[in-house]
Design brief:
By secondary structure, the protein is α/β, with parallel strands linked by helices. It contains 14 helices and twelve strands. The relative contact order is 0.13. It binds pyridoxal-5'-phosphate.
């Protein structure tokens, strides 16, 4: 199948198909467990002449397994380019350090993954890069936060863990009118649920550790690009001047696991979306639950926005127990769903964001992020939904 034919395929077919390996016709890509590659005079000359991705040099500079994963990420995100990284945080770091320099400014939603927030709020400030946090569901607030030195508008397509869905078209229009690059972390959604590049976003970041890998066994990240604002070779530039220099390549084995994960992404996430909706509806009428946050519910503040820009609503939801202090007790009582960090795997995982991932963030800031002490985050897995409901009901009955 040629590239033209591949581009015409539906999402599901693009996720499953990739060409067989040329040397052996193997359906599955080989894993190139190599940190170093042999030179000859011709390869040496090509490297001297500035060739990079087309010639294998050293594992930190790139590896064929990494390139195979990048190819498939481009397919599922409809991207023009992709750069794989050691983790989701590496994707965020490499993208931001590649885009920004001292004196630049970011506008970002109040709620992002805790490590992202801490990086913007603390670490980047050490390098002279500042951030204004706003509610990105409010386009006027975003417009008011933009400064002459604003270079990046940063949002999560479904925010971790507030579940906020920001409307992308008005944000993209506003940002691009001021030459501001729009960067979206799409981890909670996954490319099956949301493909921000199709909505004009310039760079999409994924923690592939989550839904893309899907089995809680590999850490990895990716930056995907389709942009009129950035140079066509932007990701190749930052591959060399940032990712390679900062030492954050993905391991070949992880790239291979994540490549395999992409092939079942649509089936797994479809099921996770169904289960998340079933759980969300169940919790909505539960006497021990204050509030449920799931973009598929009419009660979600951005339900209409989600309907307009996402074909599905994702496998993530949060709910608040009335007795906030007992959230950990609920999770500790679960027998089928697992009390664990991370998300997006085949097993349903749960955590209490306020006292786990967001432990270091002061309460005043947690309020702005819409993270209550009793908030429980659920990543719907592939178990039977009724078994999960019985498990949660039994745990909730204990408080
Ligand atoms: C939304 C989001 N972005 C990024 C990350 C970081 O990903 P990784 O753990 O692969 O570095 C996470 C991790 O939980 C996340 O939830």
């Amino acid at each position: 199948m040629n590239e033209e034919q591949r581009k015409k395929l539906s999402f599901d077919s693009r996720a499953v198909y990739y060409p067989p390996e040329a040397a052996t016709q193997s359906l599955n890509a080989p894993i190139y467990m190599a940190s170093s590659f042999q030179y000859d005079a011709e390869i040496y000359q090509r490297v001297v002449d500035g060739e990079r991705k087309t010639v294998n040099i050293y594992g930190r500079c790139g590896n064929p397994s990494e390139y195979q994963f990048e190819e498939q990420m481009m397919q599922v995100h409809n991207a023009d380019a992709c750069l794989a990284t050691a983790s989701g945080m590496a994707a965020i770091t490499v993208a931001l350090f590649g885009l920004l320099k001292s004196g630049d400014h970011i506008v970002c939603d109040w709620t992002t993954y805790s490590s992202t927030h801490e990086m913007l709020d603390h670490r980047l400030t050490d390098y002279g890069i500042t951030t204004t946090f706003v509610d990105t569901a409010d386009v006027d607030a975003v417009a008011a936060a933009i400064q002459p030195n604003t270079k990046v508008l940063y949002v999560e397509t479904i925010a971790n863990p507030s579940m906020k869905v920001s409307a992308l078209p008005p944000l993209v229009e506003l940002a691009h009118s001021k030459d501001i690059v729009v960067v979206c972390d799409n981890t909670f959604a996954s490319p099956y649920v949301m493909r921000p590049l199709e909505w004009g976003v310039d760079l999409v970041l994924e923690s592939a550790t989550k839904f893309i890998g899907g089995h809680s066994d590999a850490i990895g990240g990716a930056i995907c690009m389709k942009s009129d604002l950035l140079p066509a070779d932007f990701l190749e530039q930052i591959r060399w001047n940032t990712m390679v220099k900062w030492g954050s390549p993905i391991s070949p084995f992880n790239a291979w696991l994540l490549l395999r994960g992409i092939q079942t992404l649509h089936v797994r996430v479809e099921r996770a979306c169904q289960t998340a909706m079933t759980l969300a509806k169940h919790f909505e009428s539960h006497p021990k639950v204050n509030r449920v946050w799931y973009p598929g519910l009419e009660s979600h503040p951005q339900h209409e926005v989600a309907l307009a820009q996402m074909p599905k609503f994702g496998g993530m939801l949060t709910f608040e127990v009335k007795d906030g202090a007992s959230a950990v007790k609920v999770l500790d009582s679960l027998k089928l769903a697992t009390f664990a960090a991370s998300l997006g795997g085949v097993r349903t995982t749960t955590q209490v964001p306020a006292t786990m991932a967001f432990l270091d963030i002061p309460e005043e800031q947690l309020n702005k992020m819409n993270i209550a002490q009793g908030m429980i985050r659920v990543s719907a897995g592939l178990e039977d939904a009724q078994d999960l409901i019985a498990d949660f009901d039994a745990a909730l009955a204990g408080i």
